[in-house]
């Protein structure tokens, strides 16, 4: 089954500079932002990696693993993806794809995971992203393990931005219908968090 070929990962290693503190542990309702994301995807994958440099994380669920960035310095999502790929190799896992999710976008529809999984069967591209309202969501995506060597090389050559690297590699989009409420609301600031709290019923 294609599901067994995909490792789910949550990128939670950012600087949170605009938020002022580690936003992955910020509370939205009775759960942290990270917990909201875990709850949405944990039934969809055999294992989940949380890419984070927070050494205090300790999950009782044995299918969830916390891994620090393989390159120090909080250099961005591409390093998080590379970290996951290296984890697959080091631990001799059979995953062929990495499915990535941000820790700070708690309203996304879990039905989108099925769309990502189905697209793997249809495309020859090594990168697949979700796209809505004419915007590409660079953290919601699928990354082929075949990209590990070129990704590591390009990171060493100072590639940092996902969008620029994706343009270089080539990718395919999954277009999502527009909705009145933006389910890709990204919580970057305390103001964003307050807006999220006002729409808690939409999670």
Description:
- This protein is an alpha/beta fold and 203 residues long.
- It has a single domain (2-202), classed as Spore Coat Polysaccharide Biosynthesis Protein SpsA, Chain A, CATH 3.90.550.
- 29% of the residues lie in helices and 22% in strands.
- The protein contains six helices and nine strands, in the order E-E-E-H-E-E-H-E-H-E-E-H-H-E-H.
- It has helices spanning 33-41, 77-90, 111-120, 148-156, 162-169, 190-198, and strands at 6-11, 27-28, 31-32, 48-51, 64-67, 97-102, 127-132, 135-144, 172-176.
- It has a seven-stranded mixed beta sheet, with helices on both faces. A two-stranded antiparallel sheet has the order 2-3.
- Strand 2 (27-28) and strand 3 form a beta hairpin.
- Helix 2 crosses helix 4.
- The longest helix is centred in the middle third of the chain and has 14 residues, at 77-90.
- It is globular, with a radius of gyration of 16 Å.
Secondary-structure map:
Elements: E1 6-11, E2 27-28, E3 31-32, H1 33-41, E4 48-51, E5 64-67, H2 77-90, E6 97-102, H3 111-120, E7 127-132, E8 135-144, H4 148-156, H5 162-169, E9 172-176, H6 190-198
Parallel strand pairs: 1-4, 1-6, 4-5, 7-9
Antiparallel strand pairs: 2-3, 6-8, 7-8
Helix pairs in contact: 2-4
Task: Compose a concise summary of this entry.
With 203 residues, the chain is α/β, with parallel strands linked by helices. Helices cover 29% and strands 22% of the residues.
Strand content: 15-25%
The total domain count is: 1
The structure class reads alpha/beta
Distance between the termini: 29 Å
Do you know the CATH topology? Spore Coat Polysaccharide Biosynthesis Protein SpsA, Chain A
Q: CATH superfamily membership, which one?
A: Spore Coat Polysaccharide Biosynthesis Protein SpsA, Chain A
Question: Which percent range fits the helix content?
Answer: 25-40%
Which whole number gives the mean pLDDT?
90
How many DSSP-defined strands? Answer: 9
Unreliable stretches (pLDDT < 50, length at least 5) are none
* Topology as a string of helices (H) and strands (E): EEEHEEHEHEEHHEH
Q: Enumerate how many helices there are, as a single number.
A: 6
Strand ordering within the main sheet: 5-4-1-6-8-7-9
- Shape category: globular
């Amino acid at each position: 089954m294609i599901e067994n070929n995909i490792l789910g990962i949550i990128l939670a290693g950012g600087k949170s500079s605009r938020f002022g503190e580690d936003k992955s542990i910020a509370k939205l309702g009775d759960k942290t932002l990270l917990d909201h994301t875990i709850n949405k995807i944990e039934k969809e994958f055999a294992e989940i990696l949380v890419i984070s440099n927070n050494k205090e994380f300790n999950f009782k669920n044995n299918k969830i693993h916390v891994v620090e960035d393989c390159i120090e310095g909080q250099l961005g999502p591409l390093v998080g993806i590379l970290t996951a790929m290296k984890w697959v190799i080091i631990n001799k896992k059979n995953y062929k794809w990495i499915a990535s999710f941000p820790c700070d976008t708690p309203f996304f529809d879990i039905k989108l995971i099925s769309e990502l999984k189905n697209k793997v069967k249809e495309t020859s591209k090594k990168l697949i992203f979700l796209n809505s309202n004419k915007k590409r969501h660079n953290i919601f995506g699928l990354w082929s393990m075949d990209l590990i060597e070129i990704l590591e090389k390009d990171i060493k050559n100072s590639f940092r931005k996902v969008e620029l690297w994706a343009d270089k590699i080539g990718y395919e989009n999954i277009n999502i219908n527009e909705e009145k409420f933006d389910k890709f609301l990204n919580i970057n600031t305390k103001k964003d968090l307050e807006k999220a709290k006002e729409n808690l019923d939409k999670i």
